[in-house]
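Q: Structure tokens for this one, please.
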Amino acid sequence: MRIRLDGLQALDFETPEAQGLQDAAVRALAAELEAMAEQARADCPVKTGALRASIGVRRESDGASLVAGAPHAACVELGSANAPARPFLYPAFKARAQAMMVRVKRAVCRALGEGGEQA
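A: Here is the predicted structure, written as tokens:
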């Protein structure tokens, strides 16, 4: 699952203000994705522990990704011909999506100097 902040490419990142805006948004996004990763690790089925150990957050310049890197992650999340789906990523995302939007919005507002509560 990858979450990207669209519209950032329209900003001139040569200015410190624009770079600060992007940094604030990506930090807020990554922090909320860390909470999602914790929830996904708690909810994922465990046989050997490899799937749980593979769940994490990958930061990128324009966003962050919630990842499950185990080779069988997609089969567990979505199911297969031999096994029913046992979702763990989507429920974690769904449970925290609203909090993520609020946190990123607050971070952007603070970076723009428009106030906003601490995220």
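A few notes: The first strand starts at residue 2 and ends at 4. The helical segments are 16-43, 50-54, 73-78, 89-111.
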